[in-house]
């Protein structure tokens, strides 16, 4: 806030003398109330929104009933002289004024001078009657004048809009006492013959003629709607521009321009926060409601307001209110949500998603609530001082209205806006949850595991970083506070200039016309008589000066006329609809007291056409929102029901005997089922309380009654060994996966056919406890007997495209992590690695067969045609929201056709996703493209090619194609890598290029890319078998101006950040460490692409270090130094693990070099 640094320190947020982090006294007193209100709002957001919306409707109805938006009521076909005289200006000219026009101040008593001739000057304004309009203004001589009057035609004046306006002006002068009769006479003026042709309905009756009718005599339609108010406000605004000073017009233009810039800045700021429309629109609605409440309270307190004041003051009110506080609260709420997901939970928070949002709101209000209220209070206090200081003109009303608007805006910020923000957060959480679950299901993961992973992702940080990624995007500070300061400062500067230039403004005949000033910015300035009737005054001035006759001239505001039929113009307003709910006898009864009037007023609001449209739009949005939330709830309920249903054997339905039928209708065996259930329950109770060992028959009965979890381990083991429980169904039968793994280990140990080899498995050191098998079952592995721990290290940090990463590597090969870390250090010394993604597309190559070569060739031609490409693409894309077919490549071998589908797969590796799309596309090709004789030999015809070395992957790419490059300074090559540039270049050519070519290698033009690829794959949950094609790599080294330029090109890195092994928590934690866990919230595929670039950069570091070790001759000695404590001997077994050592914190995880092997 402007001037916040001037606030006393004790008022600043979170300040305490003894503990600066401790909230201050005022903070501690106010924040609990703010938290209570905000928690209520975010706990019941729909109720809060409905309540405030209904309350706003009631206020709007009351505002309509006050007639605020209506012009002054007039009686039809009558002229109100007092109304026409409002705003008129009186000027004096004579010897007393030195023959200069002297303007009488508004509100001054009417000065009478017997020597002065009292004259009235009236201007008639005929709307839309110019040269370009079909309506012709009446000729001056045809204007009906009162009989016996001395009305004189004067030259009319032009205004600032005359060049673009189509109005016609006529000016008349007359004695002031004849003015009332003149108004009555010119109430209706016949239209000129050049006017619009009159309609003839063919009857004998004389058709009604259009006339120029005085608008002030028009009967108000009485609707009081927003459209009528807008039209009246626009007309008043045009009049203001016509009569305003140029500087005032500039000020108003700046005000409106600043208002529109404020709106644009709001939407841009919210867009940077990740919300393109809803949050900015909600902020506008909240401020509009606050303005409505403030306006109604202001009027009820007796402060005069009018539509002209609003039309001029609203732009500056918008700039004054500003929108930085909703943005500040939004950033705080979402930052707290990010911190909660990162594990920095607030006291009382938990991992439940709805409570996380509520806790985020509580945390945000605690952190920023007092600061927001403090800013509101200071701004309101300044406005109250302005309202109480007696500032001239409309600024007093403006300050009063602005203060109340800010007061209600503060309340709505912590209620209405917080409710919308809560719903927006919940919708985004549901969308992320559903998208991730569906993506996992598309990738072949079971629904149960997909739901568990999605729930876990709700509580994880995902790819959110310290920069507070909001709605999937990175938040930045808003520019609104800076813009607001500039606009308010400019506003004050222009007004100071306005005041300073008042004495120097030019005027006609040196008459000081006090029509400008600070008050003219926010209220209608007094009418400038010289702008309205300047030519007429000049004529009167010349006449009076020539005759030496003092005159007093009253200049009336221009009287507007419109061309209309009198029956339409004077039509009586339509009677309002009768919304009364009860007869008159009950209107003043208890119901009226308890809210009947409120309900009746609310129903009346639907008569307004604009409000009724908004109500319809609000209802439609409500239906859409509730439908979406209902579907989300239904998805969650279905998932819960699916997971809560007891698992049964697959063939259970086959064992159920058919129900007996009579005349085709199923009989209800209620009695039989009841007796059987009671018997089973009694049996279970008896067996459960039975002491001693159960017999096999009893165990089998319990198993048949689906009560296997009640059996002990020995009984379950006996049933499993005898084949009563299939080995693959232990998890479903026992309903405890860890216990099922334990039983399976015992079964394998006691299987007679293998007991000689597997008898020690049951008591082996293979761990099986404390593992989340829910993520394994149905997703990663079957017949589980435990899990295999692997050493996990980190190499680095390594700077990749300006961002530093630690590379997780799971390996049992010593020196691999240390060597890669040395390469990372060398790369960092040269500025880091640069990676480029050149392609992204997973492939699947099915094989289809035909009886003849002719049909196979026809199929290939159709697949290569534009029609075939379109049909196959549409069919493929219909199977998934993420898989999108990029290209088809077909080839023919005899009567077999091989088709290579290349598609995007989002953040999943995508093999299962593609297989489903391929089956769909081939089905459409067979059924709809005329290839019914086609036989699908295999969905995978090895034309992909998956998990096998193939030239097509090396040439066309598969998965992510990445190139990584780094430039290593010459001195770093010598000091860190212990080699030189020329030696490395020669070694790369002779080993990686020529040597690999001599061996006939395909994609193996590297030193050991597979080492790094496999280690990172194991650490991040990738498919280890796909290191075959993922390790395709060519390493290139050049001497670039004495420095080493090294690059690796890897055309087929196959990785994913969802599905497969990434659903396991340890592997997901490593993805989290790299910032690529799960699906990217806004750009599908971005996380997996980033992981591929990390893999390529890691390979670059590994290649650099190993080639350097080979060039320097350090490889063998380094392995011996790191992996052996002594020279190798003929020991029959591995040396025992070393005992515990005193912990020593390393100075840096980045290992500088391999240990010195030269001793």
UniProtKB/TrEMBL annotation:
<dbReference type="GO" id="GO:0004420">
    <property type="term" value="F:hydroxymethylglutaryl-CoA reductase (NADPH) activity"/>
</dbReference>
<keyword id="KW-1133">Transmembrane helix</keyword>
<feature type="region of interest" description="Disordered">
    <location>
        <begin position="1123"/>
        <end position="1159"/>
    </location>
</feature>
<dbReference type="InterPro" id="IPR000731">
    <property type="entry name" value="SSD"/>
</dbReference>
<comment type="similarity">
    <text>Belongs to the HMG-CoA reductase family.</text>
</comment>
<feature type="compositionally biased region" description="Low complexity">
    <location>
        <begin position="1124"/>
        <end position="1134"/>
    </location>
</feature>
<dbReference type="GO" id="GO:0005778">
    <property type="term" value="C:peroxisomal membrane"/>
</dbReference>
<feature type="transmembrane region" description="Helical">
    <location>
        <begin position="376"/>
        <end position="395"/>
    </location>
</feature>
<dbReference type="GO" id="GO:0008299">
    <property type="term" value="P:isoprenoid biosynthetic process"/>
</dbReference>
<dbReference type="InterPro" id="IPR023282">
    <property type="entry name" value="HMG_CoA_Rdtase_N"/>
</dbReference>
<keyword id="KW-0812">Transmembrane</keyword>
<dbReference type="InterPro" id="IPR053958">
    <property type="entry name" value="HMGCR/SNAP/NPC1-like_SSD"/>
</dbReference>
<feature type="transmembrane region" description="Helical">
    <location>
        <begin position="401"/>
        <end position="423"/>
    </location>
</feature>
<keyword id="KW-0560">Oxidoreductase</keyword>
<dbReference type="InterPro" id="IPR023074">
    <property type="entry name" value="HMG_CoA_Rdtase_cat_sf"/>
</dbReference>
<dbReference type="GO" id="GO:0015936">
    <property type="term" value="P:coenzyme A metabolic process"/>
</dbReference>
<dbReference type="InterPro" id="IPR009029">
    <property type="entry name" value="HMG_CoA_Rdtase_sub-bd_dom_sf"/>
</dbReference>
<dbReference type="Pfam" id="PF13323">
    <property type="entry name" value="HPIH"/>
</dbReference>
<dbReference type="InterPro" id="IPR023076">
    <property type="entry name" value="HMG_CoA_Rdtase_CS"/>
</dbReference>
<keyword id="KW-0256">Endoplasmic reticulum</keyword>
<dbReference type="InterPro" id="IPR004554">
    <property type="entry name" value="HMG_CoA_Rdtase_eu_arc"/>
</dbReference>
<feature type="transmembrane region" description="Helical">
    <location>
        <begin position="249"/>
        <end position="270"/>
    </location>
</feature>
<dbReference type="InterPro" id="IPR025583">
    <property type="entry name" value="HMG-CoA_N_dom"/>
</dbReference>
<dbReference type="GO" id="GO:0005789">
    <property type="term" value="C:endoplasmic reticulum membrane"/>
</dbReference>
<dbReference type="Pfam" id="PF12349">
    <property type="entry name" value="Sterol-sensing"/>
</dbReference>
<dbReference type="InterPro" id="IPR009023">
    <property type="entry name" value="HMG_CoA_Rdtase_NAD(P)-bd_sf"/>
</dbReference>
<keyword id="KW-0521">NADP</keyword>
<dbReference type="GO" id="GO:0006696">
    <property type="term" value="P:ergosterol biosynthetic process"/>
</dbReference>
<feature type="domain" description="SSD">
    <location>
        <begin position="248"/>
        <end position="423"/>
    </location>
</feature>
<feature type="transmembrane region" description="Helical">
    <location>
        <begin position="483"/>
        <end position="504"/>
    </location>
</feature>
<feature type="compositionally biased region" description="Polar residues">
    <location>
        <begin position="1150"/>
        <end position="1159"/>
    </location>
</feature>
<feature type="transmembrane region" description="Helical">
    <location>
        <begin position="277"/>
        <end position="301"/>
    </location>
</feature>
<keyword id="KW-0472">Membrane</keyword>
<comment type="pathway">
    <text>Metabolic intermediate biosynthesis; (R)-mevalonate biosynthesis; (R)-mevalonate from acetyl-CoA: step 3/3.</text>
</comment>
<dbReference type="Pfam" id="PF00368">
    <property type="entry name" value="HMG-CoA_red"/>
</dbReference>
<protein>
    <recommendedName>
        <fullName>3-hydroxy-3-methylglutaryl coenzyme A reductase</fullName>
        <ecNumber>1.1.1.34</ecNumber>
    </recommendedName>
</protein>
<dbReference type="InterPro" id="IPR002202">
    <property type="entry name" value="HMG_CoA_Rdtase"/>
</dbReference>
């Amino acid at each position: 806030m402007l001037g916040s640094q001037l606030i006393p320190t004790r008022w600043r947020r979170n300040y305490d003398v003894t503990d600066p982090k401790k909230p201050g006294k005022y903070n501690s007193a106010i924040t609990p109330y703010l938290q209570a209100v905000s928690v209520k709002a975010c706990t019941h957001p729909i109720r809060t929104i409905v309540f405030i919306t209904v309350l706003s409707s009631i206020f709007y109805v009351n505002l309509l009933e006050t007639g605020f938006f209506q012009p002054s009521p007039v009686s039809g076909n009558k002229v109100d002289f007092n109304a026409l005289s409002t705003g008129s200006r009186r000027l004096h000219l004579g010897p007393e004024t030195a023959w200069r026009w002297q303007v009488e101040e508004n509100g001054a008593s009417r000065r009478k001078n017997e020597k002065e001739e009292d004259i009235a000057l009236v201007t008639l304004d005929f709307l839309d009657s110019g040269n370009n309009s079909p309506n012709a203004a009446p000729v001056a001589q045809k204007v009906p004048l009162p009989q016996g009057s001395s009305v004189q035609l004067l030259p009319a004046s032009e205004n600032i809009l005359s060049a673009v306006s189509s109005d016609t002006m006529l000016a008349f002068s007359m004695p002031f006492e004849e003015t009332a009769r003149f108004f009555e006479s010119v109430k209706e003026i016949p239209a000129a013959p050049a006017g619009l042709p009159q309609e003839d309905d063919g009857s004998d009756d004389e058709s009604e003629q259009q006339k120029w009718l005085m608008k002030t005599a028009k009967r108000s339609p009485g609707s009081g709607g927003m459209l009528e108010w807008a039209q009246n406000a626009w007309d008043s605004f045009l009049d203001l521009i016509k009569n305003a000073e140029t500087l005032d017009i500039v000020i108003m233009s700046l005000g409106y321009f600043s208002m529109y810039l404020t709106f644009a800045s709001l939407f841009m700021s919210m867009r940077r926060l990740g919300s393109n429309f809803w949050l900015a629109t909600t902020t506008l609605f909240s401020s509009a409601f606050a303005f409505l409440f403030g306006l109604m309270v202001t009027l009820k307190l007796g402060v005069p307001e009018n539509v002209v004041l609003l039309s001029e003051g609203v732009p500056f009110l918008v700039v004054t209110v500003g929108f930085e506080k909703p943005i500040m609260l939004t950033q705080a709420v979402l930052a707290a949500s990010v911190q909660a997901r990162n594990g920095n939970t607030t006291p009382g928070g938990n991992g439940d998603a709805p409570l996380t949002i509520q806790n985020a709101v509580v945390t945000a209000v605690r952190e920023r609530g007092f600061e927001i209220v403090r800013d509101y209070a200071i701004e309101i206090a300044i406005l109250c001082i302005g309202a109480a200081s007696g500032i001239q003109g409309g600024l007093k009303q403006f300050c009063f209205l602005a203060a109340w608007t800010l007061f209600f805006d503060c309340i709505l910020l912590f209620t209405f806006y917080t409710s919308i923000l809560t719903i927006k957060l919940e919708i985004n959480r549901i969308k992320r949850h559903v998208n991730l679950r569906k993506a996992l299901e598309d990738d072949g993961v079971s629904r149960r595991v997909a739901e568990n992973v999605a729930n876990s992702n709700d509580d994880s940080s995902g790819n959110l970083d310290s920069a507070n990624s909001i709605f999937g995007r990175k938040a930045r500070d808003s520019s609104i506070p800076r813009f607001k300061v500039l606009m308010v400062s400019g506003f004050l500067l222009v007004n100071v200039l306005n005041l300073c230039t008042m004495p120097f403004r030019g005027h006609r005949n040196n008459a000081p016309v006090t029509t400008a000033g600070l008050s003219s910015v926010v209220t209608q300035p007094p009418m400038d008589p010289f702008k309205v009737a300047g030519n007429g005054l000049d004529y009167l001035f010349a006449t009076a000066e020539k005759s030496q006759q003092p005159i007093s001239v009253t200049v009336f505001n221009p009287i507007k006329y419109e061309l209309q039929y009198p029956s339409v113009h004077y039509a009586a307003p339509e009677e309002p609809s009768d919304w009364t709910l009860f007869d008159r006898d009950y209107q003043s009864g208890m119901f009226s007291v308890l809210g009947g009037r409120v309900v009746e007023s609310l129903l009346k609001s639907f008569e307004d056409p604009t409000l009724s449209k908004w109500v319809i739009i609000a209802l439609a949005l409500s239906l859409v929102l509730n439908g979406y939330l209902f579907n989300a709830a239904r998805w969650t309920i279905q998932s819960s029901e699916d997971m809560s249903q007891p698992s049964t054997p697959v063939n259970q339905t086959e064992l159920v005997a058919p129900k007996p039928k009579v005349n085709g209708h199923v009989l209800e065996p209620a009695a039989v089922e009841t007796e059987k259930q009671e018997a089973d329950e009694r049996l279970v109770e008896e067996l459960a309380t039975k002491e001693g060992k159960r017999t096999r028959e009893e165990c089998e009965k319990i198993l048949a009654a689906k009560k296997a979890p009640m059996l002990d381990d020995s009984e379950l083991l006996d049933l499993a060994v005898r084949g009563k429980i299939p080995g693959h169904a232990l998890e479903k039968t026992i309903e405890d996966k860890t216990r099922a793994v334990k039983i399976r280990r015992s079964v394998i140990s006691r299987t007679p056919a293998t007991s000689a080899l597997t008898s020690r498995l049951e008591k082996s050191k293979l761990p099986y406890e404390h593992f989340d098998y829910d993520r394994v079952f149905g997703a990663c592995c079957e017949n589980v007997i435990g899990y295999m721990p692997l050493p996990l290290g980190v190499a680095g940090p390594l700077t990749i495209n300006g961002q530093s990463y630690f590379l997780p590597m799971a390996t049992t090969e010593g020196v691999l992590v240390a060597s890669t870390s040395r390469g990372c250090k060398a790369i960092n010394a040269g500025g880091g690695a640069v990676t480029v993604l050149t392609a992204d597309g997973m492939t699947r190559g099915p094989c289809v067969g035909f009886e003849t070569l002719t049909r196979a060739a026809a199929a290939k031609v159709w697949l290569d045609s534009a029609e075939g490409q379109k049909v196959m693409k549409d069919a493929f894309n219909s199977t998934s929201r993420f898989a999108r077919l990029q290209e088809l490549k077909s080839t023919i071998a005899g009567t077999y056709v091989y088709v290579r589908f290349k598609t995007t797969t989002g953040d999943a590796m995508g093999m299962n996703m593609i297989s489903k799309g391929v089956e769909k596309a081939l089905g459409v090709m067979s059924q709809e493209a005329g290839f019914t004789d086609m036989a699908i030999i295999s969905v995978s015809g090895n034309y992909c090619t998956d998990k096998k070395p193939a030239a097509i992957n090396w040439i066309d790419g598969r998965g992510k194609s990445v190139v990584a490059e780094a430039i290593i300074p010459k001195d770093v090559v010598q000091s860190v890598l212990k080699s030189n540039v020329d030696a490395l270049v020669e070694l790369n050519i002779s080993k990686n290029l020529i040597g690999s070519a001599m061996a006939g290698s395909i994609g193996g033009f590297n030193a050991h890319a597979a080492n790094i690829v496999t280690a990172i794959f194991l650490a991040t949950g990738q498919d280890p078998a796909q290191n075959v094609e993922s390790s395709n790599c060519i390493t290139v080294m050049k001497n670039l101006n004495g420095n080493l330029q090294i690059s690796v090109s890897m055309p087929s890195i196959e990785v994913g950040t969802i599905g497969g092994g990434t659903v396991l928590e340890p592997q997901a934690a490593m993805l989290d460490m790299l910032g690529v866990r799960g699906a990217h919230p806004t750009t599908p595929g971005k996380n997996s692409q980033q992981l591929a670039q990390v893999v390529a950069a890691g390979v670059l570091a590994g290649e650099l270090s190993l080639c350097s070790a080979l060039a320097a001759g350090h490889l063998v000695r380094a392995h011996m130094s790191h992996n052996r404590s002594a020279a190798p001997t003929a020991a029959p077994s591995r040396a025992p693990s070393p005992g515990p050592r005193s912990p020593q914190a390393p100075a840096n995880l980045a290992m500088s070099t391999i240990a010195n092997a030269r001793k």
